[in-house]
Write a structure and sequence with these properties.
By secondary structure, this protein is an alpha+beta fold. It has nine helices and nine strands. It has a five-stranded antiparallel beta sheet, sandwiched between helices. It has a two-stranded antiparallel sheet with strand order 3-6. Helix 3 packs across helix 8.
Length: about 260
């Protein structure tokens, strides 16, 4: 793990901006750097929202097969496809969850927030053990941002969420976690942590986040059943492309570590 730590440090020697990261691989000492620092969550917030929906489903509060009509009024811009599809389209809650994750659909996310309620979602976050992860606005709500309201998280809490996705937790008993992992597996935005990974050898389940001067990615790495978790959050960026490349390289170093230690 020291070699991996050294490789990552080399990547960061010329990095311009702020970075927080957490890397945890089974049976090794974790790598944490500013891992409890709070960042704008961008679309990473969609993973704990997904978990909140699954918890509500497990409790019987919602039906993930419930059909919801997509109207012009609840469409928003940014990432996703629903904004471009026909008004009056009807999708299940499960379909909305899927779109929220695999294409980071903002309209789908906002509909799910309305379905559960922001206050209830934040209460669920706390129940999951998230102290710094907070949903303070809907997607594309720029008026809220101007008022100082934004969504937030940190690298360690994103790792915690990924662990809940990957494992059946005895305390939470979240039904349908296999659904969540399958959604992450079908992620369409794979230009960061998974980009340089040989996915014939290592399966990567990831979710990205991006805003002006912000680049994030978090992922579960599965190498022949050996599991690792990575969360890289960046902000205060003058140029986002070098930041993306740094995240790609970190993903490659993690995958190289798996292969190297297997050989040894």
């Amino acid at each position: 793990m020291e070699i991996l730590k050294e490789k990552i440090q080399e990547e960061l020697n010329c990095f311009q901006g702020r970075i927080g990261l957490a890397i945890e691989i089974e049976d090794t000492k974790p790598i944490h750097l500013n891992s409890q620092d709070v960042f704008q969550s961008a679309s990473l917030i969609k993973i704990p929202i997904l978990l909140s929906v699954l918890l509500a489903y497990h409790k019987g509060d919602i039906d993930i097969q419930q059909q919801i009509m997509i109207s012009h009024e609840n469409k928003v811009g940014g990432s996703g496809v629903l904004q471009a599809l026909s008004n009056g389209l009807t999708l299940s809650v499960k379909d909305l969850m899927t779109l929220m994750i695999i294409v980071s659909d903002n309209t789908a996310t906002n509909i799910l927030i309305d379905l559960l309620g922001m206050e209830a979602i934040n209460a669920t976050f706390k129940g999951m053990g998230l102290e710094q992860t907070k949903l303070n606005r809907k997607m594309m709500d720029f008026a809220a941002i101007k008022q100082g309201k934004d969504n937030q998280t940190n690298p360690e809490e994103m790792i915690h969420c990924l662990k809940l996705v990957n494992q059946f937790n005895e305390h939470f008993k979240i039904n349908g976690l296999n659904i969540a992992k399958d959604m992450l597996k079908h992620q369409q935005y794979r230009e960061k942590l998974p980009a340089l990974v040989d996915e014939d050898k290592i399966i990567v389940f990831n979710k990205t986040g991006e805003l002006s001067n912000v680049e994030h990615d978090c992922a579960i790495f599965d190498y022949q059943g050996r599991i690792g978790y990575g969360a890289v959050l960046m902000d205060r960026l003058n140029d986002q492309e070098p930041a993306k490349q740094t995240i790609r390289n970190i993903g490659k170093h993690i995958s190289d570590y798996f292969v190297r230690t297997e050989r040894n």
